[in-house]
Design goal:
Blueprint (H helix, E strand, L loop, with lengths): L2 E13 L5 E14 L4 E5 L6 H9 L6 E7 L2 E2 L2 H6 L1 E4 L11 H13 L6 H13 L15 H13 L5 E5 L7 H16 L3 E6 L4 H4 L4 E5 L5 E6 L3 H7 L10 H9 L7 H7 L5 H5 L18 H4 L14 H19 L1 H19 L10 H39 L5 H30 L6 H28 L3 H12 L17 H4 L6 H14 L18 H7 L7 H29 L2
Parallel strand pairs: 3-8, 3-9, 6-7, 7-8
Antiparallel strand pairs: 1-2, 1-4, 4-5, 9-10
Helix pairs in contact: 5-6, 13-16, 14-16, 15-16, 15-17, 15-18, 15-20, 16-17, 17-18, 17-20, 17-22, 20-22
């Protein structure tokens, strides 16, 4: 597949030191064309727009630029183009707890919407891993792989559906020289196999430079100062009065030229290359490419054609299958991380602590105020613990999902739904364990219905607090900021719970906030689960107990009417609304990619 772009211009607005907003041009009306069977490198100094150009060409960036992008000499239809392409980003976002084999198997299942793989799939997987030198790491966990091996695994995952064009963002960054050579050799083999390979390179050695068929050089000002054969670069520079010093890397030399270290040659080089158009008019790239058969990568489609279950032009994605696959993958991850065990132990230990502190006060009328403090603390514990546990794990999962969703592994709704479902039983189990321990040790009234109502409210409040954490996570990328803001969104509503300050004592202009405070709805429901539903008078162990009557307890705290199910429905509606809002914002953000 050939990809062509003309007059691409991209600019951003940024703050200056004097707090004024200034428009900065990243790409300045550049043009170019990358053909199949080519290994193409986009080189330039940091901040020159290499990644921005890749983002636009791959479709990762949809807005904020002008110009045209063509695929096979036709206007690019992004939906169809993404099915035939892939984008391997600089950050190798992978599930560290999975082995290489498990990672590949899940990728096959997700990309072809099948619940199991057969012999032809295994042959394909083994063939790809062997060609990329990963077969010996078959059962190694991803977190123990080296940087080069992780990059190879990222490539292997995308080779499953045999893309026609592959984009790589600085594939050699952070790798040693040996790993860097191996990755470039793999990309060269892919190009020789008939694919179009376009990558950005920050730094490259002279030997590695010769592997590239085409160089596309960007200047810091956003212009293209060279677009053509790698071997033609010295002559091009010589014609413009520039000669690379002996024993000097010509890639480093042209970057130095772009910075003006040898004089102001940028505008002249831009004119000579016609800002990237020179290759379009004067170079027939197909005529000079030399294919080395020994470096070709075996095409996965050769294996897939043996299996009649898979069709290259499969029209519909099996949503249910993908949901099950994602659920199982998340379950395997959680199981290996021991994350659910840590959460259960935390809830159990803190449940015991709460139970010991409030031991035996539930049926004693003389301890009614302490019992209300117990209910209030249970609500606070559930909300803050739930809000704090989910953002970190979701943020890590989201990094992987962004890459996989863009490369057409599954739909966004599939990911979002599976994420909700996979954590639901864990949250319910943790809340149930905490409720059993605290309810029993605090000696609350032993009625199964009341215990069920008590646990139900703690569960929905915990889920709502989790939803707040996830909502903040998709708004920001900084984990420290996410943790801080999550707690800040929970904390203020504690004041409007009806316990610290009674509803009747609150200023009128603030009283309406109780209607949208999930702490108030949660606390009111908890109070009625324990003291409502015609509970008989409490036992008094002293001469006089002011709160012997449960009705008086509810009345004194401005909660006389039984609104348990109303409160539950309000909390459920808040939870569903927040999930819907989170999904819509995430959908929007993935379109513009932050």
């Amino acid at each position: 597949m050939d990809i062509e772009f003309t007059n691409l211009t991209c600019s951003v607005h940024c703050f200056q030191s004097d707090l004024k907003i200034k428009k900065k041009v990243i790409l300045n009306a550049i043009s170019g064309k990358f053909l199949e069977n080519q290994l193409c490198a986009i080189i330039g100094s940091s901040g020159c727009g290499k990644t921005t150009l890749l983002n636009i060409l791959s479709g990762y960036r949809r807005t904020g630029f002008t110009g045209a992008v063509m695929a096979n000499n036709k206007p690019r239809v992004l939906r169809k183009f993404k099915k035939k392409s892939c984008y391997i980003m600089q950050d190798n976002s992978l599930h560290g707890q999975l082995t290489v084999r498990e990672t590949m198997e899940f990728a096959i299942k997700l990309k072809y919407s099948v619940l199991s793989i057969n012999r032809s799939n295994i042959e394909m997987m083994n063939g790809i891993l062997s060609k990329l030198g990963l077969y010996n790491s078959y059962d190694t966990m991803v977190k123990y792989l080296s940087g080069g091996q992780r990059k190879k695994l990222s490539i292997a995952l995308e080779l499953i559906h045999n893309p026609k064009i592959m984009f790589f963002d600085e594939p050699t960054s952070g790798l040693d020289s040996s790993s860097s050579k191996q990755v470039i050799q793999i990309m060269k083999g892919l190009a020789n196999s008939g694919q179009t390979i376009v990558c950005s390179i920050h730094q490259v050695s002279p030997d590695e430079l010769q592997k590239f068929d085409v160089l596309y050089v960007l200047s810091p000002s956003g212009y293209c100062i060279y677009n053509g054969h790698t071997s033609a670069l010295p002559n091009f520079l010589a014609k413009n009065g520039l000669k690379c010093p002996l024993y000097h890397n010509i890639a480093d030399f042209i970057l130095e030229v772009s910075h003006g270290e040898y004089g102001d040659y940028v505008l002249n080089l831009t004119k000579c290359s016609k800002n990237g158009r020179l290759q379009l008019r004067n170079i027939d790239a197909h005529s000079y490419i030399h294919k080395d058969k020994s470096t070709e990568i075996v095409s996965p489609i050769l294996f897939l054609r043996k299996d009649s279950d898979y069709k290259k032009n499969k029209k519909y994605i099996n949503y249910i299958n993908q949901c099950f696959i994602l659920l199982y993958r998340n379950f395997v991850n959680i199981k290996k991380e021991k994350y659910y065990e840590i959460r259960l132990i935390t809830y159990a230990l803190l449940g015991i602590m709460y139970g010991v502190i409030f031991y035996g006060i539930g049926n004693d009328a003389s301890c009614t105020q302490d019992n209300i403090k117990f209910l209030f603390n249970c609500l606070i514990f559930t909300a803050f613990t739930s809000c704090s546990t989910i953002p970190v794990s979701f943020a890590m999962e989201l990094e992987v999902a962004i890459k996989e969703h863009f490369n057409q592994w599954y739909s966004l709704s599939t990911f979002f739904f599976s994420h909700i479902i996979v954590d639901l039983p864990i949250q319910v189990m943790c809340t149930l364990l905490f409720s059993i321990i605290t309810y029993y040790l605090s000696n609350q009234i032993f009625e199964l219905s009341r215990f069920a109502l008590f646990t139900l409210i703690l569960t929905i409040v915990g889920l709502l607090a989790q939803a707040v954490g996830v909502f903040v996570t998709i708004l920001f990328r900084n984990l420290t900021l996410i943790t801080l803001l999550s707690n800040m969104l929970v904390l203020p509503w504690v004041l409007f719970s009806g316990i610290l300050v009674k509803i009747s004592d609150t200023p009128k202009f603030l009283s309406k906030l109780y209607d949208i405070s999930y702490f108030k709805h949660g606390m009111e429901a908890l109070m009625h689960s324990i003291y409502g539903h015609n509970r008989p008078n409490l036992k008094c162990t002293e001469v006089f107990c002011y709160y012997s009557s449960p009705t008086k307890v509810l009345k004194d705290f401005d909660m006389p009417d039984d609104k348990y199910w109303t409160n539950f429905l309000v909390l459920t509606a808040m939870y569903l609304f927040l999930k819907f809002l989170t999904y819509q914002i995430l959908k929007r953000k993935l379109k513009i990619h932050w």
